Amino acid sequence: MSTSTDIACACGDVRVRLEGAPDIAFYCHCDDCQAVSGGAYVSVALFPKSAVTVLRGTLETWKLRALPRHRCARCGIQVFAEVTAFDQIGVNGARLPPGVSKPAFHIQCRYAVNPVVDDLPHYADAPTDFGGSGNTIGW
Ligand SMILES: [Zn+2]
Ligand SMILES: [Zn+2]
């Protein structure tokens, strides 16, 4: 059985359908996410590109640094980003219904401005299967 989740921008012009569950979810503390979100860290859920369908609305693409980001042309709210290194789409976990995104670890903790103490692994950069060193830091 396949389930899907629809997410929308703030004004409702853009609606995007996500098929199935995220491949993985985590909290990212990198300075890129901080700059874009205005927050200390972001909850990220990764979906395969094939799972993402734009149902309606106009998206425009922009970049702060490396990642192409897609925002509503009307209200300017980011709907998703392309995580090009993994050929996946990153969705802010806060836009998903409760329980869909289950973050498994924290990444880019070396940039953290607001450490979060919990039972999850805290990677200085990223796990080895995400191209990182796999080193964790203690908070
Ligand atoms: Zn909008
Ligand atoms: Zn980040």
TrEMBL record:
<dbReference type="GO" id="GO:0016846">
    <property type="term" value="F:carbon-sulfur lyase activity"/>
</dbReference>
<comment type="similarity">
    <text>Belongs to the Gfa family.</text>
</comment>
<feature type="domain" description="CENP-V/GFA">
    <location>
        <begin position="4"/>
        <end position="129"/>
    </location>
</feature>
<dbReference type="InterPro" id="IPR006913">
    <property type="entry name" value="CENP-V/GFA"/>
</dbReference>
<keyword id="KW-0862">Zinc</keyword>
<keyword id="KW-0456">Lyase</keyword>
<dbReference type="InterPro" id="IPR011057">
    <property type="entry name" value="Mss4-like_sf"/>
</dbReference>
<dbReference type="GO" id="GO:0046872">
    <property type="term" value="F:metal ion binding"/>
</dbReference>
<keyword id="KW-0479">Metal-binding</keyword>
<dbReference type="Pfam" id="PF04828">
    <property type="entry name" value="GFA"/>
</dbReference>
<protein>
    <submittedName>
        <fullName>GFA family protein</fullName>
    </submittedName>
</protein>
